[in-house]
Amino acid sequence: MGKLWLDTDAEMRLTDTAGEDWFVTKSTSTGGAHNYSVNVFSTAAFSPSVTGAFQPHPYGGERWDIGGLHDPVTNNGRLTVPAGGAGVWGIWYNVSEFRRINVADRIIFRVLVNGASARGTEIGVGSTLAEPAHSYYSEYDLSSGDYVEVGMYVVDSTSDRTVADSVTSGFGMDWLRSTP
User: Fold this and answer.
1) More reliable by pLDDT, 2 or 91
2) Chain segment 134-165, per-residue pLDDT in tens
C-alpha cells in the first residue's frame, strides 16, 4: 500500500509498494479540474413586487463559496463563473413558499443566465399548506463571466405582493467539467 502526502514545497509524493517515490508537482498541472462550488441561502423573506416579469431572488447568506462565485452584498442574487471557470456547471435551487395569499395564482421559478430566462419549473395553483417546497437541478454550459440567478415570475396575480407572504430558499452551483 502506498502513501500520499503533501510536502511543504508544494509537491505531492506517492510511495508505491516497492518503496519508490513518485512526485506530482503543482507546476506540472494543466488545470483541468477546478474546485468551484457555492451554496447560498436567503436571509430574509422575499415577496414579489410586480407581476409579469422575472425578479431575481436575493440570497444574503453563504454556506460556502469556494472560488468567490457569490457577493453577499452587491447583486447577492447572482452566482458568477470566475475567470478560467468555463465549462459545465450543475445548478440547483430549492424553494419553500410560505403560504400564498391568493392560492389561484401561478408562479414560475427559472434559472436566469445573464439575465435571460433559461430553464426552470412552473408551480401551479398555490397551497394553503405551510411551506410547500419545490426543487430543481440541471446542467448548463457556461463561459467565464456568465452569471446565473433564480428568477421568480408571478403569472396571474392582479395586485402586487399578494402571491406569497414570504419565500425562503437555497441556491447553488458546482463546476463539473470542461466543455467537450
Assistant:
1) 91
2) 778 999 999 999 999 988 877 665 443 333 43
**Identity of residue 86:** A
What's the chain's Rg over C-alpha atoms?
A: 21
Q: What is the pTM of this model?
A: 0.71
The 3 state secondary structure assigned to the chain is CCEEEECCCCEEEEECCCCCEEEEEHHHCCCCCCCCEEEEECCCCCCCCCCCCEEECCCCEEEEEECCCECCCCCCCCEECCCCCCEEEEEEEEEEECCCCCCCCCEEEEEEECCEEEEEEEECCCCCCCCCEEEEEEEEEECCCCEEEEEEEECCCCCCCCCCCCEEEEEEEEEEECCC
Burial group, residue 81, by CB count within 10 angstroms (0-12, 13-18, 19+): buried
Cβ distance 114 to 147 under 8 Å? yes
Whether residue 76 contacts residue 65, with contact meaning beta carbons closer than 8 Å, is answered with: no
Q: Please tell me the predicted confidence (pLDDT) of residue 39.
A: 94
Q: Which three cell numbers stand for residue 9?
A: 514545497
